[in-house]
Amino acid sequence: MFEKEAGGNIVNTGFPSEQPSQRSTVSMLAGTITVGADGVSSKVRGALGAQYLTWNYGQMGLVATVRLSEPTENKVAWQRFLPTGPVALLPLTDELSSLVWSINSDEARRLLGLTNECFVDALNEALWKQYPRHPVVDTATRRLDNILDSLMLRSSAVRQLQPSVAEIEPDSRAAFPLAFGHSTRYVGAGVVLIGDAAHRVHPLAGQGVNLGFGDVKCLTELLAESVYSGQNIGSKSPLLCYETSRQRHNVSTMLAIDGLQKLYSTEAAPIVVLRSLGLQLTHALAPLKSAIMNHAAV
Ligand SMILES: Cc1cc2nc3c(=O)[nH]c(=O)nc-3n(C[C@H](O)[C@H](O)[C@H](O)COP(=O)(O)OP(=O)(O)OC[C@H]3O[C@@H](n4cnc5c(N)ncnc54)[C@H](O)[C@@H]3O)c2cc1C
């Protein structure tokens, strides 16, 4: 239960049935739930008093709206993993895409300071520059291709080329620090955290919003069930169910994303071989690909 102290501070005092308030100067919000959907610096999380596990990636996510050189049936999201971090173009319309470019913080500040024309040049170079490939990686991926061919598992899909960018929409450039963050608790009495207030991930997997949508779906279903069965909307059991269910899903997803970030932060040949083969296999094995997509969709 959240209570307001005489000084105006909000404090969390436990579930109502566990700890009835003895204070005389409080106003109590009975039969309601406070949903903390206030993002990475959540004040609701602070008031809940939950521990927050966090580390920085030393990168910023540079975002912008960009106009493609040629209008296409723009429905493919592109991501290129560069030695400096991933650069992604996410379709908005046939002509516009949303840029998410993860890059070390100094370079992000430099890119923010460029003129629009110079920024577009730097972006096109990031999208198109050819890097020398390690011969061991080439040999390993070619051999796996041959094996997949002989097992008739190689995808027949034609590989499309990434788009080029013609210009950037005025005043659409901004950069945000990237970090991992997880609240050890999502719920208290009459209070629940959702979205980035509860968890924060690197954008390389495009999963931040999905995790939040999953929280909302789970919470609304559990609350509806509890109200239909005659319980108070702030009852403990649906909130604890929400926390258990979402932490089980979110923590595994977050650790996988953090692992991917680390996997793609190195150019050591054995790691590059492993991640290239992993990507090739995932692409070839439709059930594995579907399982990953299904997990990401809830
Ligand atoms: C650079 C970058 C790129 C990203 N790219 C992707 C991507 O491609 N795909 C993806 O799925 N996710 C992406 N994400 C993550 C995604 O943006 C977040 O996961 C998502 O926005 C979280 O939504 P939210 O509603 O929980 O929090 P937010 O979007 O942060 O919304 C919180 C809201 O609460 C408001 N607020 C805060 N405090 C108060 C207060 N005291 N009173 C009133 N209002 C308050 C804020 O103003 C804000 O509007 C990216 C994140 C970054 C930083």
Give a written overview of the molecule.
With 298 residues, the protein is an alpha+beta fold. Helices cover 40% and strands 23% of the residues. It has two domains: 2-51 and 184-260, FAD/NAD(P)-binding domain, CATH 3.50.50; 56-175 and 266-296, D-Amino Acid Oxidase, subunit A, domain 2 (D-Amino Acid Oxidase, Chain A, domain 2), CATH 3.30.9.10. A hairpin with a 2-residue loop joins strand 10 (187-188) and strand 11 (191-193). Helix 4 runs parallel beside helix 7 (269-284) and helix 5 runs antiparallel to helix 6 (236-263). Flavin-adenine dinucleotide binds at residues 37-39, 43, 61, 63, 90, 100, 176, 195-197, 203, 206-210, 212.
Q: What count of structural domains?
A: 2
Average pLDDT, rounded to a whole number, is: 87
Q: Strand fraction band?
A: 15-25%
- Specify the number of helices: 8
How much helix, percentage-wise, in residues? 40-55%
What is the CATH architecture term of the largest domain? 2-Layer Sandwich
Bulk shape: globular
Give the CA-CA distance, first to last residue: 29 Å
Report the top-level CATH class of the largest domain.
Alpha Beta
Rounded Rg: 23 Å
The tally of strands reads 12
GO molecular function: FAD binding; monooxygenase activity; oxidoreductase activity, acting on paired donors, with incorporation or reduction of molecular oxygen
GO cellular component, one term: mitochondrion
Protein name: FAD-binding domain-containing protein
Region (Disordered): 1-22
